[in-house]
Design goal:
By secondary structure, this protein is mainly α. The chain is 84% helix and 0% strand. The protein is built from seven helices and no strands. The chain has helices at 2-50, 57-84, 93-125, 127-132, 138-161, 169-209, 215-231. Helix 1 (2-50) runs antiparallel to helix 2 (57-84), helix 3 (93-125) packs antiparallel against helix 5 and helix 5 (138-161) packs antiparallel against helix 6. It is globular, with a radius of gyration of 22 Å.
Length: 235
């Protein structure tokens, strides 16, 4: 009698597992398809801007953002392939390194997008300073510092939170807390605030001059909105 009662439950559980497995494969296929499209788009951006002899400060930021996004998509696709095809188990060192590389490129991408929105905002609020008094190599220096900061934080987190090294739960929690505060408490508010100011400034200038906003401002605003809606939950 107990076996007869357990049989429907076992069948139901097997159906649920099969449905979850199917949904996981469909979701993984969508992620890989999105990564493939991102490879093409960001690859074109990196190739076009990288082949330019002289770049504007804004194009330097976009070039670095394209590289960060390209590396993030590569890490994301690699992680999905490693898990789906069971090339490594979930505690393998390679999977841990790929995961940390993903968060490293994510942090770099978010910080660069924040700087881009702030730079566009400054160009609207202080156009004379932006054109005449901005340091020549400021964009390259800022990009280098952001890469170093992201690499340093995630390298420390990798060593403190790795199961293969001397894992320290307290220090791991603290470094992850620092990264979370940096992402949610610094980069995101700056990006959202400067984007709002940029949106208001562009709207006022376009209303006063009866001119439509330029494509670069619209592109920056769309990128920020898409990021806040779809990519921010990863932080």
């Amino acid at each position: 009698g107990e076996r007869m009662l357990q049989a429907p439950a076992l069948v139901e559980n097997s159906v649920e597992v099969e449905e979850l497995s199917t949904a996981y494969w469909v979701l993984s296929a969508m992620v890989l398809f999105t990564c493939l499209g991102g490879f093409v788009g960001n690859g074109l951006v990196v190739w076009l801007l990288g082949s330019q002899g002289q770049r504007s400060p804004f194009s330097v930021y976009i070039l670095h953002l394209g590289v960060a996004d390209l590396l993030f998509l590569l890490c994301m696709a690699s992680k999905v392939i490693l898990i789906c095809f069971q090339l490594v188990n979930r505690i393998h060192m390679a999977l841990h390194i790929v995961s940390r590389m993903k968060y490293f490129t994510y942090t770099a991408s978010l910080s660069l997008l924040t700087v881009i929105s702030m730079q566009r905002c400054l160009s609207v609020l202080f156009p004379v300073w932006y054109k005449c008094h901005q340091p020549k190599h400021l964009s390259a220096v800022v990009c280098a510092l952001l890469w170093v900061l992201s690499l340093l934080l995630n390298t420390v987190a990798m060593f403190l939170c790795s199961d293969f090294l001397a894992r320290d739960e307290l220090l791991c929690f603290r470094i992850d807390l620092v990264i979370s505060i940096l992402l949610m408490g610094v980069f995101t508010p700056l990006m959202a605030g400067s984007s709002l100011i940029l949106c208001v400034g562009v709207q006022r200038s376009s209303t006063a001059t009866h001119r439509r906003p330029t494509r670069v401002y619209v592109t920056v605003l769309v990128c920020i909105l898409v990021f806040l809606a779809f990519a921010l939950p990863l932080g």
